[in-house]
Amino acid sequence: MRETTYDVVLYGASGFVGRQTVRYIAERVGDEVRWAIAGRDRGKLESVRAEVGIDVDILVADSQDRGAIDAIVSQTRVLLNTAGPFALYGDAIVDACVRYHTHYVDITGETPWVKGLIDRHHLQAATDGTRIIPCCGFDSVPADLGAYLLVRYLQRELGNNCTHIKAYYQLAGGVNGGTLASGLNIYDRGELDLVSNPFLLNPPESVPTDIDRHRDPTSPQYDAEMDTWVAPFYMGVVNTRIVRRTWALFDRWQESYGTDFSYQEYLKFDPPWARLRAAVVVGSMALIGGAIAIPPLRSLLESTLPQVGSGPTEQTMNEGWFRCELLGWGSQGQRVRGLIADVGDPGNRATVKFVCESALCLAVDFDRLPGGAQRGGILTPATGLGDVLVERLKQAGMRLEVETI
Ligand SMILES: NC(=O)c1ccc[n+]([C@@H]2O[C@H](COP(=O)([O-])OP(=O)(O)OC[C@H]3O[C@@H](n4cnc5c(N)ncnc54)[C@H](OP(=O)(O)O)[C@@H]3O)[C@@H](O)[C@H]2O)c1
């Protein structure tokens, strides 16, 4: 193992999510983990350090200053990145992580940016055994670990492959300015076509011929399994791509989910008014999409929504919650049910728990990770962290359950 000054560096530590990662790591780890905080503004980082009441080093580098980024990345075994939009601030960091063999996690949901990382870095990181794992926040850990748990349960406990999984989300919480900025940046770069490709993140040889079966749902529908109305889940365009990449990577390593596999996501509404609420969500998404394309409406929208650097109140974040229910079908007709759930705003409290525990898997539990020391590449939470992350999340109070129906 390479000698480094730190086990984990938190980059972007003065951002809205970044500040919460500092608090989480400070409360969660003792002296066994050597960590530091990093970002572009020393003054802001000093304030975070004082606010949390910790005595850790501060490392400073603007994301565009490749020399300064190299100096940070070369000093740590693991880099946890929360500075986004990642398409604007993430390239030099991942590039340095690949060159210095520094393992990496982040909370991006920007699939076009992840596609670029795969094209530029997968081969080298795979050759070197460097684990680069984007999408370790609410996008896409529940989806990826949920699907993984159901598939492996069907295989190990019931002796069957899994043919199909449906995930149903219910949630309460707020929105961060940084999240909106990342979405708008994808729109401004003209990348919506990439976003709509169901197999954007798959190796080309793993894309099935029956692609239409995997297209994103677009309208509200009655769901017989749940006996209520559902809408397309707005983060499904990220999560389904990660689950499909996991499916393809495991297949390549002879740890297959099965050849005939599909995964979709929905937002679930309990009665009363389930049908109406599903229709309102779909209609609102279409209206917002339309308004963004008209400059005066976009300016109006932007002025009313949270700005970069801000997010929900402490009360909203503490009172938030999420439930991701999963149903899986086995190749011989068996059915299994899964649940991933926690208290706290999904985009903040849960995201912070997901990404910090992911970084700690790499820093503390590396020898137990799936695939051994040689596994590397642009990975997913399930392929890069798997059961070790499941265990850590359970220890951190999250519900992750699977059972036969
Ligand atoms: N996966 C999920 O569920 C999830 C949830 C929440 C957020 N996110 C994503 O996480 C990202 C951050 O969200 P947030 O709410 O924390 O946003 P934020 O508060 O706006 O934070 C942005 C961070 O980027 C840093 N930054 C800006 N320009 C930089 C530069 N040139 N060099 C280096 N750093 C720079 C900022 O530094 P300063 O502090 O110095 O300004 C800040 O630390 C967004 O991309 C968002 O979409 C994902």
Largest sheet: 7 strands, parallel
Instruction: Please report the number of helical segments.
Output: 16
In which order are the strands of the major sheet placed? Answer: 3-2-1-4-5-6-13
As a whole number of angstroms, the C-alpha radius of gyration is: 20 Å
Helix content: 40-55%
- Poorly predicted residue ranges: none
Question: What's the total number of strands?
Answer: 14
Q: What is the N-to-C order of secondary-structure elements (H for helix, E for strand)?
A: EHEHEHEHHEHEHEHHEEHEHHHEEHEHHE
Highest CATH level, the class of the largest domain: Alpha Beta
Present as ligands are: NADP nicotinamide-adenine-dinucleotide phosphate
CATH topology of the largest domain: Dihydrodipicolinate Reductase, domain 2
CATH architecture of the largest domain: 2-Layer Sandwich
Strand content: 15-25%
What gap, in angstroms, lies between the N and C termini?
45 Å
Domain tally: 2
Which structural class best describes the helix and strand composition? alpha/beta
**What overall geometry do the principal axes of the alpha carbons give?**
globular
Q: What would the average pLDDT be, to the nearest integer?
A: 97
